[in-house]
Sequence to fold (503 residues):
Amino acid sequence: MVDRIGVVGASLAGLRTVQALRREGHAGRIIVVGDEPEPPYDRPPLSKQFLVEDWEEERLRFAHAAEADPATEWRLGQPVTSLETGPLGLELEDGSRLRDLDAVVIATGARARRLPFGRGLEGIHTLRSLADARALRVDLASSRRVVVVGAGFIGMEIAASCRQKGLEVTVVDPLPAPLVRGLGPILGERVAKRHREAGVAFHLGVGVEDFEGDARVVGVRLADGTNLPADLVVVGIGAVPATDWLATNGIEGARIEIDNGIRCDATGFTGCAGIFALGDCARWDHPRDPANPRFEHWTNAVEQADVVAQRIVKGEAPDFAPVPYVWTDQFELRIAIVGEVREGDEMRVGLGSLEDDRFLALFGREGRLTGAVGFKRPRQLNACRKRIAEGMGFGEAVEALL
Amino acid sequence: MPWYRVPQCDALAANGRVTAEIGGREILVCRIDAGLVAVANRCTHSAWPLSSEPIEGNEIVCTLHGARFDLRDGCPTAGPASRPLATYPVEFRDGELYVSL
Ligand SMILES: Cc1cc2nc3c(=O)[nH]c(=O)nc-3n(C[C@H](O)[C@H](O)[C@H](O)COP(=O)(O)OP(=O)(O)OC[C@H]3O[C@@H](n4cnc5c(N)ncnc54)[C@H](O)[C@@H]3O)c2cc1C
Ligand code: FES
Fold:
């Protein structure tokens, strides 16, 4: 029987797992260890309302009953340094050990990727944690010119937020349009248009070569020789799964595979007795997608938590075969994406046009509906998510959904 | 807390819901299984208007990112919202609809 459960990572995936375990009827002890000192909080607002509306930190905090539950222990501000197998245990940085665990759930998320240069220069930021956001917000208050490196979701959200605060903003990316990976070039360009209208400048199709400055950054040098003056730089070039602590320690003999995330079956089981993983740090088998992608999406962590909890409490759970879902808010744009948008996909737009701020775009490949993007079209987009899961034909989808 | 009359309350009979701006606040009044309720019309997650969002039983679903709220007490029951919707006393008097803010 599973009695004592250790959860590594006290954020969205960790907290939601605790809640789901209790819903599934787990009455035993749960010990959650997290390296951040703050109680669990929500990350999406860090690049949005926390910067634009100066949200109080309190507002980010997840309200949850597990805080007051005597059977759940929170060990915060304390990184786990290694995982011991057979018997299962965790070692914490302060040297203390949690022993005799019946299950371990790894929910360590991801860390912001950094550039190999500019180390030690002041004024260069990444954004992943509340500590990062705090430092960024303080530094923005005394800055005028901001360069954002990376035109992915987080980079573009930060660009919009900084512009809304009245700062001069330039976005740099080696790809020819922003958000290409999430939205494809046409919709990426649609978002760029909104940013340009607001006064955001872009240097696309060119990479960053170096940062200028002695103690503090004063500029960004691009591969084409351009020198962009900057008081502050935000690097938003993606995230890497936080699995380094596992890779270097303590899993000798355990059959945990780490390859762009902790590999799991379609229920979050690592293949090593009693060890599970979910959220941004994990890459699950996907019954319908041979690429077995790793998702860094809010909703994915929440949905996986239900599956892992079932798997732990009941010993089994149905294979999870999600159609991915992610949202992004930039200026007044409310964008959400279901499924996947790939280069070369067919695209049809309806329920509005690309010129409007409300429309639905469907994407198809090999005759099937494979992705959809909604600009302020949440209900219609949710319907697409179901239809993609059912394998609806693209022609039929265009008829029925647009 | 003063009572305010909600204009165009015919919509309530026709659609089961009516929205109004009262004292600078957007209010949604709707009829659910549990009776008549009045709540703030903006999702506490990212301020999406709830006026035409689906109601299932006693819950309203904010389809923008999937938050659900129990309309009886405004409390979030699922999804990304952590804070409750503000709720307001509401009643019919002489065929007119009133909320108290
Ligand atoms: C700025 C920002 C904006 C975002 N916006 C959106 C959005 O608009 N829409 C969307 O769908 N998604 C968004 N996301 C993504 C979403 O927040 C993540 O998918 C989600 O946080 C994943 O949850 P997680 O618990 O798996 O990982 P995380 O939230 O990263 O949590 C992992 C936790 O584990 C801790 N940890 C790591 N290593 C250890 C260790 N060895 N010991 C103990 N603790 C450890 C970490 O410090 C962290 O607290 C955004 C992310 C960021 C950073
Ligand atoms: S605005 Fe309602 S769920 Fe996000």
Q: What stands out?
A: The longest strand of chain A covers residues 368-375. DSSP finds nine helices and 25 strands in chain A.
